[in-house]
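Lecture notes, structural biology module. Today: joint structure prediction for complexes of two components.
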Amino acid sequence: MTWTDEELVARSRTGDMDSFNQLILRWERPIYALAYRVIGQEEDARDVAQETFLRAFRALPGFKGQAKFSSWIYRIALNLCRDWIRRKRRTPVSPLPDDVDLSELAAERGPSESVEDLVARRELSAVVEEAMTLLPEEQRTAVILKEYHGMTFQEIADLQGCPLSTVKTRLYQGLSVLRKHLKDRIPSPTEQAVRVREH
Amino acid sequence: MKKDPEDRKLLDRSPYCGDPGALVSYLYNDGSPDELAAIAAHVQACDTCTSELAALGDTREVLSGWSPPPTELGLTLSSSDALPVAASTITAPAVTAAVADVPWWRQSSPVWMQAVAASMVFAAGMAIGAGRGAAPAVSGTAAGATQPAAGPAVKESGVSRGELAELEQRLRAEMARLTPAAPAPAQTAARTDDEALMKRVRTLLSESEEKQRGELALRTAQVLRDSEIQRKVDFATLQNDIGKIQGATGVELRQQRELYNQLMNRAGLLAK
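The predicted structure, tokenised, for the full assembly:
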């Protein structure tokens, strides 16, 4: 039987550890992905994810269900990411790989993905990651929440504690910076399509 | 096919033209149906907004290729995670290491442990005092004259349970004696006796409290003195150990220096 988040939260509040671990299983990937994209460090992102669930578990008695569990846990994770950034006092930078380890790549590769595709994906990820570091924290977070977590403008506004119009402006500005940066490094899908047609 | 320049001028004056909020709403299809329909109508007629949206759409497509490195998470919590971190785990490693070298019976106990021990000793003392109930009765005058004092002297003027029991018996006897209908003058006399007894009870109670306070102060002072002595002993031992280590290091250093000198001398002789 599949429980909803709210049901699992209610059961967890009565001390049912398994229910909370089900919530973790359900949300650990998105939270880790969020943390990784915001702070850009794999190990630290994992620590942030772990700490997020630990804090959520300890704060569970105070969670009265005013918001969705997902919004609540995203808020905790974002606060931790913000703390991390402040603590490190640096813009998250993911070093670009100098050399590519093929055995590592083979393990990472999806079932229907060729090594060439995988290398391209990694290169693309690295370029996007680098571009993301150019954005101020608020813009980066807004782009990440919208682009990779499919949140509505209103949800992002609630999480960031700002007006809806500010979220839209942050997104527009963020996307504009990314567009300029990525333009020189990666041909846009439209340009690629034109090149294919020319060939 | 775009509209003629006149129509375009009108549409360009649309509040949505070039508005970042409107473009982003349209790009992500996030807004009210009416608003999205109005923006769509404008975009269809506006080349600038159309190309801007196309560029932003391309950027979004590139962004979709960014995925975090795959990793095994498997995060789980246990019920013990809900508890705050135990004080023992916060202990500074250096202190722990220093204490670990000292035998357990010589290690100084934490303050709370000393306080518990003091309470237990005090409670035991009280129990022994209570069991010693056959103490001689103290006359009212003598007890009233006795002043409470701190320290062992308090025991001399203390009140045991036996004394209180005896007092209770006397009170009961007095009450029994006064219960039958008595003439008015007798009642007055009895009231006087009652007042005296109450005064005596109050005196005994205050003496008992003073005695308890005195014993507690005594025990606390003993515990503090013991812990201070223990601390001094530990400190002296630590200094002694450090001195030994320093001495050993000095000896080694001297030996090495001598060896080095010998080697240098030999090397010099060989060179000659």
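Point to remember: Residues 17-39 of chain A form the longest helix (23 residues).
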